[in-house]
Design brief:
Elements: H1 10-20, H2 27-47, H3 71-85, E1 89-94, E2 101-102, E3 113-121, E4 132-140, H4 151-154, E5 161-169, E6 173-179, E7 182-189, E8 194-199, E9 210-212, H5 223-234, E10 244-245, H6 251-261, E11 263-267, H7 280-293, E12 297-299, E13 319-322, H8 324-335
Parallel strand pairs: 1-3, 9-10, 9-11
Antiparallel strand pairs: 1-2, 3-4, 4-5, 5-6, 6-7, 7-8, 11-13, 12-13
Helix pairs in contact: 1-2, 2-3, 5-8
The structure holds 2,5-anhydro-1,6-di-O-phosphono-D-mannitol and magnesium ion (MG).
Length: 336
């Protein structure tokens, strides 16, 4: 029987991809399915955050007498839980945890992947009903299968990512993930509780009209960065403008919008924080991978983000990311 399906769920989509790659084992599909499950649970809690007293400090007790967890702690536990109990992940590193966690049970040490994530990014927006998100990236481990993972399995440059993605909890929730084969976006259909393919084969427009940066830090930026920002403000119709400034302060939402509409997002170094704020492993690498597969670019100002050899799990880096032609123009300013 031929079923005429208009929509594909995340599971159906990853299984379809498996059919096209005969040597695939299904482990990556399994891992994405687990992350999708954690994402649904986090979505549910984010959606009722205003109703229940979940925004209190960790350790508070709510009206039902249950211990109240902050959303970011909850999100971290969900991500860790699905990956630990799955059969495709040998260890994780999280922005919320001081060090990586090796899963040392008999099944996990047989897994070939490690996963890094920022469980709930945009923390300053959690309690004001503004979009926030989860960011993840997947690497093939370097240590032999059958052993417990080590720090080296995590300290790999972004160009070694097998997959990366994010979930944005917004007006609707979306899961977007990239492999080298492409970037695809799934919107949560609450009526069936499934991630449903809504944005197949996402390509970032080569040029856009949006620039995203924290203007409050303007006088803290390097002169070259300031000159580029001023050039964005001066754009006219004749040179691809006028540009519009959009900055939510949730990287997931800001970069998601620019990925779809075309634009550039910047978190440069400042006088106080020369390396900026964003974390290479949990925020910049996954987005750089997604953006590059979608046709865009990402740099720290000098080096392609994906080529940076990490030296520690929580290191920060300046970030410039977005549409290819806008990035090339920025690079001219930075090189001048
Ligand atoms: P967080 O991990 O504490 O949530 O911080 C990361 C967030 C990003 O989502 C966002 O792009 C950036 O911080 C905004 O920072 P700022 O308020 O300094 O502009
Ligand atoms: Mg973060």
């Amino acid at each position: 029987m031929i079923v005429n399906r208009k929509v594909q769920t995340l599971d159906e989509f990853t299984i379809q991809q498996l059919r096209d790659v005969p040597q695939a084992t299904g482990e990556l599909s399994h891992l994405l399915r687990n992350i999708g499950l954690a994402g649904k649970r986090i979505h549910r809690e984010v959606n009722k955050a205003g109703l229940v007293d979940i925004l209190g400090d960790t350790g508070d007790v709510n009206v039902q007498g249950e211990e109240v967890k902050k959303l970011d702690v909850y999100a971290n536990e969900q991500m860790m839980g699905v990956l630990r109990h799955g059969i495709a992940c040998a260890g994780i590193a999280s922005e919320e945890l001081p060090d990586f966690v090796a899963f040392d049970d008999a099944k996990s040490i047989q897994s070939k992947y490690v996963c890094m994530f920022d469980p709930l990014d945009g923390s300053s927006n959690i309690d004001v009903n503004v979009s926030i998100g989860t960011i993840f990236s997947v690497y093939r481990r370097l240590s032999p299968i059958g052993t417990v993972v080590t720090r080296e399995d995590f300290l790999q440059p972004g160009n070694r990512q097998v997959a990366a993605g994010y979930i944005v909890y917004g007006s609707s929730s979306m899961l977007v993930y990239a492999t080298r084969r492409g970037v695809n976006g799934f919107t949560l259909d609450p009526s069936i509780g499934e991630w449903t393919l809504s944005h197949p084969d996402i390509k970032c427009p080569e040029r856009g009209k949006i620039y995203s940066v924290n203007h409050g830090n303007f006088f803290q930026y390097d002169e070259k960065v300031r000159r580029y920002i001023e050039a964005c403000q001066k754009k006219t119709k004749a040179d691809g403008g006028p540009y519009t400034q959009r900055y939510i302060g949730s990287m997931v939402a800001d970069v998601h919008r620019n990925l779809i509409k075309g634009g550039i997002f910047m978190y440069p170094g400042t006088i106080d924080r020369p390396k900026g704020k964003l974390r290479l492993m949990y925020e910049c690498n996954p987005f750089a991978f997604i953006m590059q597969v979608a046709g865009g670019k990402a740099t720290d100002g000098k080096t392609n983000i994906l080529d940076i050899q990490p030296v520690e799990l929580h290191q920060r880096t300046p970030l410039f990311i977005g549409s290819r032609l806008m990035m090339e123009e920025l690079e001219q300013y930075l090189a001048s």
